[in-house]
Design goal:
Strand content: 15-25%
Shape: globular
Distance between the termini: 40 Å
Bound molecules: manganese (II) ion
Number of strands: 12
Helix content: 25-40%
Strand order of the largest sheet: 1-2-6-3-4-5
Number of domains: 2
Structural class: alpha/beta
Length: 340
């Protein structure tokens, strides 16, 4: 969990497993109103909302993850959690779709959650940050357009962002990859980027120079991403080998190249980082490039999904496997083999 202050308003940025940490932090804070923004409803968040209501707080929930037709298990949890929120919060549940509100800041008005006695809890990405800033009364001229681009599909063009938006993306490239076993380096770096960005918009002169300096490595990361060879394995499966890439590269640039390949459906990455790699030396991460597939369907329900067993399958759009599990669950079924 990341904690910063925006325009005097305390803001907590969380990942999906941070509900307990938020409840603990909030227990020591003085506030009477709380805003949740850009957090897709799930059971654990509803429990937190109930806790706040119980403690006499006025809760507003602004989010754009609503789905029209639930397809996956996660969708069903979201629909269920959303109806609980509507019941609990009535008109203060502002639950919308990405289509209606591509960025969450348009679900609140400028400064609606400014002043004393407010706590903001937001997703820890650009949409959550910009939504929290706007709610707390802080904005810049192209903020909404930037938020839409940054929260849109990967491969959206950085060149369409405002100067501030571009500086945000460049600085973000300095954050080390999130390691669930050791989250602190990544969390601290993200906190610094968020704080500097907010301070820059608040008009603190030194903040901008510091933020720009954090983005110094970005151009080199783009060059590296452009040098990676993308192999076509057939049937819409693409492969990149990141094992021999010693330094970090800009994933957005790589994804733009991958998505430009005609009829691409799935990207397979072989890498030395990640939770599976910790246990198995290497990791195969699979990302879908179209909305139709649910990658969890590759994993039989009987399969134990743990890093030790070499399978992590939480999301429909991403699947992490050991090389052995890739052989068993993908190669054998789809008839593709990874290059040596
Ligand atoms: Mn969002």
């Amino acid at each position: 969990m990341i904690r910063i202050t925006i325009n005097g308003v305390p803001c907590l940025f969380h990942t999906r497993d941070d509900q307990e940490a938020i409840a603990k932090a909030a227990a020591f804070m003085q506030f009477s109103r709380v805003l949740f923004i850009d957090i897709g409803p799930r059971d654990s968040v509803v429990a937190l909302v109930e806790e706040f209501i119980h403690a006499g707080k006025e809760v507003t929930y602004a989010d754009h993850h609503a789905v029209d037709v639930p397809r996956t298990e996660r969708d069903r949890e979201l629909v269920n959690a959303s109806s609980k929120l509507k019941h609990l919060l009535e008109h203060r549940a502002r639950l919308s779709t990405r289509k209606e509100h591509p960025a969450c800041m348009s679900l609140v008005s400028l400064g609606e959650f400014a002043g004393d006695g407010v706590l903001i809890i937001a997703d820890r990405d650009a949409d959550g940050l910009f939504g929290a800033m706007y709610a707390a009364g802080l904005q810049y001229s192209s903020m909404l357009e930037d938020a839409k681009i940054l929260d849109g599909p990967r491969g959206n063009k950085i060149k369409d962002l405002s100067t501030y938006g571009q500086e945000y993306v460049r600085a973000l490239s300095s954050i080390p990859p999130f390691d669930p076993e050791n989250p602190a380096p990544s969390e601290n770096a993200r906190k610094e980027v968020f704080s500097l960005f907010v301070a820059m918009i608040e008009g603190v002169p030194a903040a901008r120079n510091k933020l720009v300096a954090l983005g110094d490595g970005y151009d080199q990361m783009v060059v590296r991403a452009n040098e990676i060879e993308i192999k076509d394995l057939g049937s819409g499966y693409l492969f990149v080998d990141l094992l021999k890439v010693p330094d970090r590269l800009d994933m957005n640039t790589l994804m733009m190249r991958v998505e430009a390949v005609k009829d691409s459906k799935i990207l397979i990455r072989r890498q030395s980082r990640g939770v599976i790699a910790i246990h198995h030396g290497k990791q195969i991460t699979i990302e879908r490039l179209t909305d139709e597939m649910d990658l969890r369907s590759f994993v039989p329900p009987s399969h134990e999904t743990t890093p030790e067993n070499g399978v992590i399958s939480n999301e429909p759009f991403r699947l992490h496997l050991s090389e052995a599990k890739f052989q068993e669950l993908i190669s054998a079924r789809v008839g593709i083999a990874l290059p040596e």
